[in-house]
Amino acid sequence: MAEFTGQRGKRQEDGGLGSVLDLLLANARLVLGVTGAAVLAIATLAVKRLIDRATSPRDEGDPKAEQKTLEESWQDLALIKATPKPPKKQRREDLSEPLLSPALPPSPGEALEPRVCSAPPETPQVEFSPPRCLTLQEKLLSHYSSRLAVPEAQASLALQLARSICAQLQNFLQIKCPELPFSSLFLSSPLLDGLGALAADHVHLMLPVILDAALWSLIPGEDTVVRNPQYWMIKRTDLEYFPRGRSPWDRFIVGRYLSSNVLNETLHKMLVASINWPAIGSLLGSVIHPVVASQELKLEVKHDQVELSITLFPVVEMEDKVLLAAPPEGLVENLWLESFYRAEVSKVKELDAGDAGARQRCLCILNGICKSHPSLHKLSGSPLTHVILHLSAASSDWAEESLADRFQQVLEELVGYLEKGILPSYFNHKINLFCELLEEEIDEMGFTLYRAISEPELLLKEK
């Protein structure tokens, strides 16, 4: 009796569940449509089978029954997976476009054409590789090749213009001042020597002044009024035996000394007032203007393809010294500046030729950086060259592979010299190449380079 009651209750529960499912299936067609109702029916049938098996008594110990149950479960699972998915509704990109009408059945004489579904185009796979970090060595070489290489055509044109102007000046001086023994003018510039020209925009014209060694002698810089060993004075000697007028340069004497100021002023007047620069410029296809306000003897040349600044320096060579008529600023006259440029270029090239070194390349990079940096531009030229020459005496490995190491070592050496405020000349240790720098300038340079020691790439960024 109890067993019957339990079976009855079970049948009632099954009947109740079946009624719910039947009601759901009956209304599914109205809600989901034909396709949706079919999907729900198949899924419901599979679930109902699973429920029936779960509630029906199991035949313990009957392997055939267990195998049949397992197979039915696989079939139900396959039935669920094989259930067709309802088609997605078409999305209208443009509200003005009408919805697609259902396809009409073909006419009896019209054959059905097979529809070929083209596969969607494959999206090309782009491989993204992480950015490669360049070493300091690679950055220096890239900086050298991309920013410091002067175009050959531009350099050639600049040098051609400078040589033409040099020849015009030479002819003018021979005609205007035949009594003054000037030697042949020649060019001097990093553009010619390959030691740090950022552009073909500046050239020096050297005007040699020939002195009779029997009538002139050099006074060391320590004995001059400025007490600076880099400046010399040229004294007229033996005036008792060889009075004024014996030397053609006596007209430029001030207090028994050959005055660089007087010589520069005379040449400046000639450049500004006596030379027909418009005619020379038209002959060379350019416009030439002497710079009137400058204390230097300077010309500005404008061509269609290049703009050039030319500075004229009277130069005296005596007793193995090269002296320029470039006196310091101020009221001091008659002083001549000792130039080491020729010796610097010669020594750097000699060392590089001896060990196939990269001193010239390192110097070119440093010159380019300092010339374009607002707080380091006064370090370009001789100071950098002398630091490299000092360092060459201590570090023998200047191969191109060691360029980054030597570059960073030069920065460290520069910071050390700036801390002391003294950079001795390689050719004369009595000369301090920092003597004309202000204390504020030295502090700013030292701070900039101190930061660059830990991060040299800061100096390679665009200014």
Automatic annotation (TrEMBL):
<dbReference type="Pfam" id="PF21297">
    <property type="entry name" value="MID51-like_C"/>
</dbReference>
<keyword id="KW-0472">Membrane</keyword>
<dbReference type="GO" id="GO:0090141">
    <property type="term" value="P:positive regulation of mitochondrial fission"/>
</dbReference>
<dbReference type="InterPro" id="IPR046906">
    <property type="entry name" value="Mab-21_HhH/H2TH-like"/>
</dbReference>
<feature type="domain" description="Mab-21-like HhH/H2TH-like">
    <location>
        <begin position="359"/>
        <end position="445"/>
    </location>
</feature>
<feature type="domain" description="Mitochondrial dynamics protein MID51-like C-terminal">
    <location>
        <begin position="156"/>
        <end position="344"/>
    </location>
</feature>
<dbReference type="InterPro" id="IPR045909">
    <property type="entry name" value="MID49/MID51"/>
</dbReference>
<dbReference type="Pfam" id="PF20266">
    <property type="entry name" value="Mab-21_C"/>
</dbReference>
<dbReference type="GO" id="GO:0005741">
    <property type="term" value="C:mitochondrial outer membrane"/>
</dbReference>
<dbReference type="GO" id="GO:0007005">
    <property type="term" value="P:mitochondrion organization"/>
</dbReference>
<dbReference type="InterPro" id="IPR049097">
    <property type="entry name" value="MID51-like_C"/>
</dbReference>
<keyword id="KW-1133">Transmembrane helix</keyword>
<keyword id="KW-0812">Transmembrane</keyword>
<dbReference type="InterPro" id="IPR024810">
    <property type="entry name" value="MAB21L/cGLR"/>
</dbReference>
<keyword id="KW-1000">Mitochondrion outer membrane</keyword>
<keyword id="KW-0496">Mitochondrion</keyword>
<feature type="region of interest" description="Disordered">
    <location>
        <begin position="78"/>
        <end position="129"/>
    </location>
</feature>
<protein>
    <submittedName>
        <fullName>MID49 protein</fullName>
    </submittedName>
</protein>
